[in-house]
Structure formats: C-alpha cells, structure tokens
Amino acid sequence: MTKPLLGNKESFLAFQHLNFRRFIFSKFMLTLALQIQFVVLSWQVYEITHDPLSLGFIGLAEAIPAVGLALYGGYISDRSDRRKILVWVQGLMIVCTGILTYLSYHYSSLPLSQQSAFPFYVIMFGIGILRGFYSPAQFPLMTQVVPREAYANSSAWNSTFWHIAVVLGSSGGGLMLGFFGKNTSYIVVLVCMLIGFLQIVRIPPQPIQEIKPGEKMMSNIREGLRFVFSNQAILGALTLDLIAVLFGGATAMLPSFASDILHVGEKGFGFLRAAPFAGSVIIALYMTRYPPLKNAGKRLLFCVAGFSVCMIAFALSRNFYLSLFILALSGAFDNVSVVIRSLIMQLMTPDHMRGRVSSVSTMFISSSNEIGAFESGFAAKLLGLIPSVIIGGSIALTSVAAAGVALPEMRKLDLSKA
User: Measuring CA to CA, which residue among 65, 167, 67, 78 is closest to residue 122?
Assistant: First the structure.
C-alpha cells in the first residue's frame, strides 16, 4: 500500500498561516462568483443568439485584454505590493458585476428580439483587462504568505478550493438560473465578490521585491520570457496545457451539448458544467496528502493524454449520465496536470521573477481557456459540433506524443528531488 507523503497534520500545513487562510477564502469567493456569473451570462447570450459561435466570442472578449496586458501585469507585480494589486482588481470587478446586474434587470422587461449580446461582450472585455493584472499577482502572493516547505501543500489546497468553487458555481449557477432567474443570480454574484474583497483587504501589505536601478521595462519583461523559454519543465507544462484545452476542450460548447445533443435543459447544463470540477475536487483532496512529486513529468504526460481521450469520448456519448462520468474523469486528469504545473512554477521560479513567470502562464492559460472557447465555437460552426470536438481531442493527443519526444527534461522530471 502506498504511504502518504504527508501526514494528517502536514496535510493542513498551509492553513497554519493566517494570511494563507485569508488569501484562499478570498480567492474561493471570487472564483465562486465569477463561475456563477459566467454560467448565467453564457446561457443568457445563447438564449439571445442561438449561435454556438456567440459562446466563443464571450471567451475571446475576455482573453484578448487578459493576454495583451499579462506581460505588463507581470512587470507591475514584480515591482509592487501584490496584495494592493488584488485589492484594486477585485474592487473594480465588483463594479463590472454591478453594471451587469443593472443590464440584466433592464433586459428582463424587453422581448428577446430587442436584446443584444454586445453589452455582455463589453463587460467581459473589462473583466479581461482586470484579469491581466489579477493573475500575475495572485499566484506570487500565495507564495509570499507561506514558507517554502508548504509550497506543495498550498498548491494542492489552492487547486482544491478553486475546483470546489467552480463545482459550486457551475452547478449552483445553473440551478439558480433555472429556479430563481438571472437577476437573483447576479445579486448572489455581487454578494460573493464583496465577501472575497473584504478578505483580501485583511491581508497586511506585503514586501516589494528589490528593483535593479536603471532597469527598463522591456528588458525586465524579456528577462522573464527568456527564463520561461529556457526552462523545459515550465515551457513544456504550459505548452501542453495550451494545446490540450485550446483544441481538446469542450467546456465552452456545453450549452450546445445540453440543449441540442443531450436535451437536458438549464438544470442538466448546470450539472454538465459541474461534472469536470467534481472529478477535480476528488483528486485534489487526494493530492493534499499524496502530492504528485515523484515522476511528475511522466504523470503530466499521462494525464494530458487521458484528458484528451475523455474529450473524444464525450463527443461520442449520447447518454447524459455517461457524459457526466466522462466529464468528471476529464476533470480528475486535468487537475493533476494543473497541480504539477503549479508546483513546477513554485519550485523552479526565483522570487524576484514570480510575477513575470506568472504573466506568461496567464497568457498560455487565457489562450487555452478563453481563446480556446472561441476556437471551439468557430470549429463547431465550420465543422459541426461533434466532429470539431473529436478532431480537437485528436490534435491534443498527438501533442502529448510530440512533447514526450521533444522535451526529455520535462519527461524525466521528478519534483521530489527539487
């Protein structure tokens, strides 16, 4: 029987630090809010347009500014109090959600023929701008509020709480949408965001990294890029995530699958959204005690391959319960790769470069998730919904084989020795 790498007490090592508890609760509430908001907004847009491509535009509207500003956000993160950045960003997100709530109340009195999806894209563009600064600051802040010996445990719990928030937000968003409607759902989003904001405010100011005198912004950014692209483990983990979700993900098309393929309506859509994250939570809780340090590179390749196969199987399924199981399994595979990538970045990145390295990660992740949503919508429009997911999953599977051959340092990576 495999022995746990961490004992019962050590399984909660990160929670011994007050500021980590504040950080993780704030992130949990913000993630919960954004997931509910995305579920309701995506259904609302599809209700207005009845076009899968419109779902892709939601992701694109958020990804363009997030990717475009990420490197600058990383530069600011390495030269500023990261806690202060998050305070400003989360406060402005509350403003964006307030505008969205007002818009939803206004639309509720209009027939669908007089509603437009354009204002929703504008709001998502604004949230994308804020994400360009949030993502490069939040990961380094988490690293600042725990000691090095708690990195693996903090990464596992960070992933666990993120996925729990997504499970609750996805399923809760769908159920609230079905039972209480859009307007009430947006009010809940506002309350959750406010609670998260109050927690991040309670974290004391954090020390700012030492700045080299006379260093220019572009040379500072190039230094971060050179570090990422010269490190096979970091580059390989980010690239695999990019290709797998960019081409292999079917999450953005779930409204179409729920409505047109599985015929399960709004409530079924909520459960489909929650299924991948339910699988993620189960495996994440396991990893708080059994962190995937040994043979991390091989595990990463295996899990990305497993995720890709699940996407192909989901496209072929016509049974709602089988589809739920496949999505849950895909979430488990995906989360192992997420935790391994997080550990690689924590253990292999110097303190003074964490913001810039996180900004590159933001670019890859935003590209895979939000631009991937657009790619999924465009491919579904061009090739048909089911063929597009099968072809995308096959491309992702091929990338795993290519990475295994082209990146031997990543394949042989063992984080238990780091």
Answer: 65
